[in-house]
């Protein structure tokens, strides 16, 4: 895939992820939209293939981080925050075991 196509795909993916992660939060949606657009505009004139690949990697890492680590919180009281995790964040928790088991 050509680099221009990769960059466009990443741009679209970041905006889709932004819409999922910050759903129902107009302020966060707008701030994320502005930040994504600013970052892409500031690197629009980059011509070095190596630097472009590095920026694509950074953008992909940011998308993964947003998708897997960000949880929305809603203020319900003065000192209370209600967390609203997305379904894709709710993974089965495997308990840690201090004592390794012997394979038979």
Automatic annotation (TrEMBL):
Chaperone recorded as keyword: yes
Mitochondrion among keywords: yes
One Pfam family in the UniProt entry: Complex1_LYR
A cellular-component GO term for this protein: mitochondrial matrix
Coiled coil spans: none
InterPro entries named in the record: Complex1_LYR_dom (IPR008011), Complex1_LYR_LYRM7 (IPR045298), MZM1/LYRM7 (IPR050435)
Localization in the cell: Mitochondrion matrix
Keyword set, alphabetical order: Chaperone, Mitochondrion
GO BP annotation list: mitochondrial respiratory chain complex III assembly
Recorded superkingdom: Eukaryota
Quaternary structure (record): Interacts with UQCRFS1.
Functional description taken from the UniProt entry: Assembly factor required for Rieske Fe-S protein UQCRFS1 incorporation into the cytochrome b-c1 (CIII) complex. Functions as a chaperone, binding to this subunit within the mitochondrial matrix and stabilizing it prior to its translocation and insertion into the late CIII dimeric intermediate within the mitochondrial inner membrane.
Similarity comment: Belongs to the complex I LYR family.
PANTHER family cross-referenced by the UniProt entry: COMPLEX III ASSEMBLY FACTOR LYRM7 (PTHR46749)
Protein name listed in UniProt: Complex III assembly factor LYRM7
């Amino acid at each position: 895939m050509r680099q221009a196509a990769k960059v466009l795909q990443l741009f679209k993916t970041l905006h889709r992820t932004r819409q999922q992660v910050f759903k129902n939060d107009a302020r966060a949606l707008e701030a994320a939209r502005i930040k994504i657009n600013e970052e892409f505009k500031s690197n629009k004139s980059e011509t070095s293939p190596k630097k472009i690949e590095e920026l694509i990697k950074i953008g992909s890492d940011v998308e993964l981080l947003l998708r897997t680590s960000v949880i929305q919180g809603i203020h319900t009281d003065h000192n209370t925050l209600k967390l609203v995790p997305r379904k894709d964040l709710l993974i089965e928790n495997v308990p840690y075991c201090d004592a390794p088991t012997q394979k038979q």
